[in-house]
Amino acid sequence: MSDNSRKEYWRRNVKLITICMVIWFVVSFGFGIILVHPLNAISIGGYKLGFWFAQQGSMYVFVALIFVYSKLIGNLDKEFDVEED
Amino acid sequence: MSLTVMTYLVVGATFALYIYIAIKSTAKDTSDFYVASKGVHPVLNGMATGADWMSAASFISMAGLIAFLGYDASVYLMGWTGGYCLLAMLLAPYLRKFGKFTVSEFIGERYYSLTARMVAVLCLVTASITYVIGQMKGIGVVFSRSLHVDFKTGIVIGMIIVFIYAVFGGMKGVTNTQIAQYCVLIFAYTVPAVFIALQLTGMPIPQFGLGSTMADGSGVHLLAKLDTILVDLGFAEYTAQKMSTTNMLFLTMSLMIGTAGLPHVIMRFFTVPKVKDARASAGWALVFIALLYTTAPAVGAMARMNLMDTIQIGEVGSPTGNLKYADRPEWFKSWEETKLLIFEDKNGDGRIQYYDEKGMGDKAASFGWKGNEMIKVDRDIMVLANPEIAGLPNWVIALVTAGGIAAALSTAAGLLLAIATAVSHDVLKGWLMPNINDKQELMYSRIAIAGAIIIAGYLGMNPPGFAAQVVALAFGLAAASIFPAIMMGIFSKKINNRGAVAGMLAGLGSTLLYIFIYKGWFFFPETRMLADIEANHLFGIKPQAFGFVGACINFIVAYIVSGMTAPVPQRIQDLIEDIRVPKGSGKAVDH
Fold first, then answer.
1. Nearest CB to A67: which of B78, B249, B283?
2. Is residue A24 part of a domain?
3. Residue A44 within any structural domain of the chain
4. Which among A68, B380, B452, B570 is least surrounded, fewest beta carbons within 10 Å?
5. CB-based contact (8 Å) between B243 and chain A?
6. Residue A4, φ and ψ in degrees, nearest 5
7. A15-34 residues touching B, CB cutoff 8 A
8. Among B223, B99, B236, residue whose Cα is nearest residue B579
9. Which domains does chain B have, with CATH numbers?
10. Could you report the per-residue pLDDT of B220-255, keeping only the tens digit for each?
11. Closest Cα in chain B to A48
12. Residue A62 lies in a domain
């Protein structure tokens, strides 16, 4: 594989990781901690929303993020033909 | 059947199962021993990772912490799960592609330096031993309760069992056993949670039960009711934030990058067949972990509610509002035996008053209360006491005991394996005695396991804090030293050997120093230099939350030193290019 396509593959991968990390940060540190007070004004069921993100929601998002990343990076592997044999 | 007999039966049955599995899958060579021959399916590997990961701290201490800290305990929930995202995206697939046996081996090769490899071993062993201490304390709590022995005797029994257990099979045996242990522990954790959620809210799924209304027909939400009960007795509101926002952020971040830097967790991703599987495996691991971690908030809140309701049976302040000591339930008596629960009748009325003295202020005196009479309620007992408090049948209680032991054993085995691998494979085979054969290597790793158990057992008897907090310290160390070195090794071609070594030492050194100042040198409390209170902390950062700062110091020092010294040689740059793409990954290779 050429140097250029190698670089491009890595650039796209890093971009994908960056997007995932932003979401990761927003749901946990953002919604669960920094914005917990304003979000707690909203309730879903018996949960205050900020509290829910901190003790439930962020974890559901983490799980989803890993599978989404695995799927997308898998597509990228195919596109650049760097899959394992 | 009595509870004790039932407990012996259930625990004995699970032990027989683990030992059977461990014997069935004895390691034949070093590849078997270190990485289970890289033949573990990602879903099963995820399950084993879950058991490896969910320790005595997760199983026993976490719900207890949540019960007493409320919202603030979110740092543990997010911190101990969020790290898997970092693992899946930043570390695991590349380390699997690299294809060696240990984390230190990667660091040694990437930074073309034996010194880097040994510094990595030092960081890894320090973090792992600190972490094992927490497991030992957890094991002590479980055994002392279920076998009705003194806490220290409990730890000794635990040490013996872990020792017998850890010498079996290596990674292959441990992996297979951990899959069984995961099943035991998750079953043991969710069954009582479902029962209690049903009792309190009529909703069988604990994750939803926590957000439901009480089943008593009052229409009040469980969390709102808990807030009221606690505030009435002078405690802080359950859902309110008590820790400073800075500490919440720093502690969560330290736990997350610490999770991703813990060697016994990273090692698990060397055992899958492909790079692709390493990514998926991290996802599966988190699914299995989240199953417990999303249940824990419900367990914590409901346990706290039941505990308060047991003691405060009537209106706060009314003469008959508190439980008579003579009427205390069985579980109360059995925990008093372990001295983890202590009552003292300060006002001599024969009733139990449990409240927060500061929060109640003068009101307490007007009720004739002379101080909080529950002198000690060890947070670590909550999960184990929970089914008894809720009046669940004996077999459920026995099951929880077995689950707690499964959690502690599986993690201890994984950690001891990581320590033993570092000593035998990296230090002895890789440095001091390169000519030893497989058999000798295995023998040395067993000696290393024994040494580690003794040190951890001693520290477990004299622990620097609650099990979960001790564990939090291990995370600080992993976060400050190992994670940055691996991440920079993959994502930057600029960091060279000197930069990496200086960075790791600076990260580890600063974090250890910060912890030892407040917790005592090597955790001996009498040697602490400053009291562990907020006024003494640098920018108010708790010692447990310092790992993130240590990691930043590591990154900065590594960049500066690398910039001043010779650049990374071409062959290492090619190695980095190679691990960045999945293509061409092979089986594990020894040197």
1. B283
2. yes
3. yes
4. B570
5. no
6. -65, -45
7. 17, 20-21, 24, 28-29, 32-34
8. B99
9. 3-302+391-580 (1.20.1730.10), 303-389 (no CATH)
10. 999 999 999 999 999 999 999 999 999 999 999 999
11. B239
12. yes
